[in-house]
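User: Design a sequence. Structure:
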């Protein structure tokens, strides 16, 4: 049998309807309305450069496909019944695989945080499902999937052939479906109906109150893992729970977790480690800022390419509000794929997040400019994502047996001049662009046999190349072509029309005199313009900072031996204040205290005329917390943990170091009676969340009393959650610990309850209580409740009526952490007095002064000094209220809080008496590392100014080139207090904003 051979262009015309019919008849169970067509589609693409995968390229090779699948790749024989397609000079690549998409699903509207009626405590989803509306593991994308011709066309034109799609809604989002981008019915496009299990920290469309914070989302996920394990035993008390059933059934699938931030990636990985799950992390785009931590997860990542646009900083008034970190992120974000490649972390690329998927290839080219290799880029859009989602047996490379999903291009894939001609999906051709006609042609006009050289750059204009080059016009209509151009400027035009074949055009025309002529144009060479992609070596990119803001380190500081000489040393020990004394620090500990100590190899700091104190400890802080300080949606949320949401990037860490603070007790807010678990951190500026944590310390939890927990100040709609009275608060406490005691008595096979686990720890003095408190009657009530359950309250914080009940607190064994002189800011603090701290201390309580405020924590030394005025407290005792006493309250006094040999070198060198308003912290040291130095701070301010100016000029240059820009906007900083609800949600509840 004679083989049919044709060019790509002629093939497009021939196969216009044939392939559509061939694709449609593949559904055997569907009736045929017309004449059945059982012909097999067999095609042989010959003389092509075939890129089988990122590491294997075949020259002058043949690709054979039949019935939507690849038959052979290489140099084997061409089947006799094949349609032969000449691909000489062309390249064939695998079509792209996108491992993160919502193609074919309905967009989901997120729930608003504004005023929306009464609180909703249980799921509104009807049926035998779980209790929380944000856990949607029963949702299967396959059940809601519909092909979308418009979106599919856009994705095909970007090079994609297959996507992993899911409904992007909720914390547990159900299963994803693997589909091709072929037109036709869903049955044929669907490759695997359950291809992944999808997760996030975003509750999505859920209108249920819980969770109302990031730590609540994490707790809900952890509890759901435990509940699903328990449900495997089919407990009779639970009945049928389709949500947990679906959760368990999906655990063998690839587990994909969508995150909003680099720290979220680590939070997700920590959950996975706890439950033996290795997530695939769908990244946020700023992970390059913490590559060692990303590598430590051992996870594979899906990287978005939605790089930020340059910011419009032309107006200096706008520019001054833009954070340096935002400017640097604009510059450095395209380096993320290269950073993953360099770190040898498995990754793939996704079009998710791009406003237009057609920008996908351009974004890859930008990543290549920033150091990503072309080989790795190709792998990241083909075989890597296929392997990641366990679909490499069907897609991702050109191998026999796999789906016939491939691209036909004019050249190497990532050259910006390369044209994508066609995207074949399951053996069906989709034309992206007609065959490239751009190039130089030799035009011969008969009968004069005159020759000309034409240059065709685009579909509408051409140039006649001669001594005085002139321009003309060109147009195409299918295989027909029309040309018109003058032979010299201002002269009449030569008008030609004819048929355009692959390499030769011919036809008839009219010359400048009106005579009939014949013509023929033969293709000489393709038109190429210089690839504007810059090599990475030519890019000027700023340095990474740790943390990623202007005050971050270029290299993290290390411990060193330090000798502070001739200072006034406030020991907080029996020695009291020591004049003209040296302190030697070695290996992060205080090694020696004395006079005229030998320095050895230690760095020497002159303390003459200065004061050295222990570092300040803030017993009550809400800095460095991400996306919500309160899980205020229920009255008891002891399952949530501040430890899960520590934010190392918070600039308040640095600001408080500048005020001498070395440690902060990060507390849950006061929105509920029993709040979340707290976290003590050391202010190791530049460390990650785990390294910030004060290791080996006793765990604490936050309780609260008063107006906040009974929702007095939450607005008229918040009248549903129990308790609504102070009596109800006692009821909540008694009920919670009764439930905890009963829970502990339950036998094997019980459901593990994270909420009750924390309360059981309290009952056994394995977790300690810090309680937000104001009114003496409630303080007495809580101590009585604690006594009845045989535990004690460790610390009453705020405790503004502590002076009334100090004797009872002492008998109970509680300490107090209070404000220096806050009063009258709400009804329950009307009786506050500035002598409170002094009175409690004289009764014999351990008393601390705290901040509960990011700004005030920068001058806690001055807050402590107020007790010298109000009650004539001794200076050293006043200092202890922000150093040794909070260390005692937090059970870390054996490590820090005083200057004693063997303790941690947590020290502050002051310019003056630390109780003076004129004192400045010149150096703040944590574990023997100087994390704040006032001289370095001045250098950093200059560095910030220089770096900002460099980036502003770079952005202005981008705007001048015509690059699209984004509007300048200030970065919103999360600053929390006790009363703040879900990331500022309180304001929206009250004001309806």
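Assistant: Done.
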């Amino acid at each position: 049998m004679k083989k049919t051979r044709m060019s790509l262009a002629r093939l497009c015309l021939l196969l216009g309807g044939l392939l559509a019919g061939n694709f449609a008849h593949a559904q055997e169970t569907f009736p045929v309305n017309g004449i059945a067509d059982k012909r097999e589609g067999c095609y042989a693409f010959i003389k092509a450069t075939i890129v089988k995968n990122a590491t294997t390229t075949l020259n002058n090779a043949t690709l054979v496909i039949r019935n939507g699948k690849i038959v052979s790749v290489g140099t084997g024989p061409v089947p006799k019944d094949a349609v032969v397609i000449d691909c000489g000079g062309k390249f064939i690549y695998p079509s792209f695989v996108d491992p993160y998409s919502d193609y074919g699903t309905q967009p989901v509207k997120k729930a608003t945080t504004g005023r929306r009626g009464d609180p909703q405590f249980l799921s509104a989803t009807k049926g035998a499902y779980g209790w929380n509306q944000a856990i949607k593991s029963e949702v299967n994308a396959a059940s809601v999937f519909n092909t979308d011709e418009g979106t599919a066309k856009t994705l095909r034109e970007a090079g994609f052939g297959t996507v992993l799609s899911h409904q992007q809604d909720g914390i547990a989002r159900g299963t994803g479906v693997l589909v091709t981008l072929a037109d036709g019915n869903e049955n044929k496009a669907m490759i695997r109906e359950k291809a992944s299990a999808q997760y996030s920290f975003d509750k999505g469309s859920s209108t249920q109150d819980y969770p109302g914070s990031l730590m609540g989302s994490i707790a809900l996920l952890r509890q759901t893992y435990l509940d699903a394990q328990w449900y495997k035993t089919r407990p009779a008390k639970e009945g049928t729970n389709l949500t947990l059933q679906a959760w368990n059934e999906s655990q063998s699938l690839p587990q994909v977790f969508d995150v909003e931030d680099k720290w979220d990636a680590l939070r997700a990985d920590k959950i996975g480690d706890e439950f033996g799950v290795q997530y695939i992390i769908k990244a946020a785009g700023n992970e390059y800022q913490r590559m060692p931590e990303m590598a430590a997860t051992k996870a594979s990542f899906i990287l978005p390419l939605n790089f930020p646009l340059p910011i419009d900083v032309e107006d200096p008034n706008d520019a001054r509000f833009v954070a340096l970190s935002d400017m640097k992120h604009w510059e450095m974000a395209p380096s993320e794929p290269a950073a993953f490649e360099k770190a040898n972390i498995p990754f793939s690329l996704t079009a998710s997040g791009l406003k237009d998927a057609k920008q996908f290839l351009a974004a890859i080219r930008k990543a290549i400019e920033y150091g990503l290799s072309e080989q790795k880029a190709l792998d990241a859009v083909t075989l890597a994502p296929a392997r990641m989602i366990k679909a490499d047996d069907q897609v991702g490379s050109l191998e026999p047996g796999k789906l016939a999903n491939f691209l036909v291009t004019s050249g190497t894939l990532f050259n910006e001049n390369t044209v994508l001609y066609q995207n074949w999906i399951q053996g069906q051709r989709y034309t992206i662009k007609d065959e490239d006609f751009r190039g130089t042609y030799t035009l011969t006009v008969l009968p004069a046999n005159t020759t000309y050289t034409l240059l065709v750059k685009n579909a509408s204009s051409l140039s006649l190349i001669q001594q005085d080059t002139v321009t003309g016009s060109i147009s195409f209509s299918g295989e027909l072509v029309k040309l018109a151009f003058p032979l010299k400027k201002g002269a009449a035009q030569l008008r030609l029309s004819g048929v355009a074949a692959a390499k030769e055009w011919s036809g008839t025309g009219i010359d400048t005199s009106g005579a009939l002529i014949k013509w023929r144009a033969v293709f000489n060479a393709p038109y190429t313009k210089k690839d504007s992609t810059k090599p990475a070596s030519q890019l000027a990119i700023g340095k990474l900072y740790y943390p990623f803001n202007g005050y971050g380190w270029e290299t993290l500081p290390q411990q060193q031996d330090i000798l502070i000489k001739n200072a006034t040393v406030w020991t907080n020990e029996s020695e009291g204040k020591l004049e003209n004394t040296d302190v030697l620090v070695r290996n992060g500990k205080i090694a020696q205290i004395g006079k005229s100590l030998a320095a050895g190899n230690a760095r020497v700091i002159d303390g003459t005329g200065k004061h050295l104190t222990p570092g300040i400890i803030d017993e009550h802080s809400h800095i460095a917390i991400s996306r919500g300080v309160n899980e205020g949606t229920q009255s008891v949320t002891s399952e949530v943990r501040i430890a899960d949401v520590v934010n190392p990037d918070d600039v308040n860490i640095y600001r408080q170091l500048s005020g001498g603070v070395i440690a902060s007790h990060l507390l849950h807010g006061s929105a509920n009676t029993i709040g979340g678990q707290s976290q003590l951190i050391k202010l190791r500026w530049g460390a990650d969340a785990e390294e910030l944590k004060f290791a080996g310390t006793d765990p604490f939890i936050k309780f609260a009393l008063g107006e906040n927990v009974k929702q007095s100040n939450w607005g008229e709609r918040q009248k549903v959650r129990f308790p609504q009275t102070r009596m109800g608060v006692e009821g909540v406490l008694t009920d919670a610990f009764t439930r905890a005691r009963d829970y502990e008595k339950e036998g094997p096979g019980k459901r593990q309850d994270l909420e009750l686990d924390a309360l059981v720890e309290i009952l056994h003095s394995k977790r300690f209580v810090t309680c937000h408190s104001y009114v003496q009657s409630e303080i007495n009530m809580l101590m009585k409740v604690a006594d009845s359950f045989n535990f004690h309250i460790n610390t009453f914080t705020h405790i503004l009526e502590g002076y009334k009940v100090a004797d009872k607190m002492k008998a109970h064994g509680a300490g107090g952490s209070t404000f220096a002189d806050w009063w009258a800011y709400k009804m329950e603090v009307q009786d506050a007095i500035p002598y409170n701290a002094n009175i409690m201390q004289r009764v014999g309580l351990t008393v601390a002064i705290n901040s509960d405020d990011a700004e005030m924590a920068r001058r806690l030394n001055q807050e402590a000094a107020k007790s010298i005025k109000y009650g004539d407290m001794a200076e050293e005792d006043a200092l202890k209220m922000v150093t040794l006493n909070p260390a005692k309250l937090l059970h870390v006094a054996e490590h820090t809080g005083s200057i004693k040999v063997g303790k941690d070198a947590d020290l502050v060198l002051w310019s003056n008496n630390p109780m003076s308003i004129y004192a400045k912290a010149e150096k703040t040291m944590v574990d023997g590392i100087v994390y704040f130095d006032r001289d370095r701070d001045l250098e950093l301010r200059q560095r910030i100014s220089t770096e900002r100016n460099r980036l502003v000029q770079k952005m202005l240059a981008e705007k001048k080139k015509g690059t699209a820009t984004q509007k300048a906007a200030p970065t919103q900083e999360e600053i929390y207090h006790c009363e703040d609800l879900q990331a500022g949600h309180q304001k929206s509840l009250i004001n309806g904003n």
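The chain has a mean pLDDT of 92. The radius of gyration is 35 Å.
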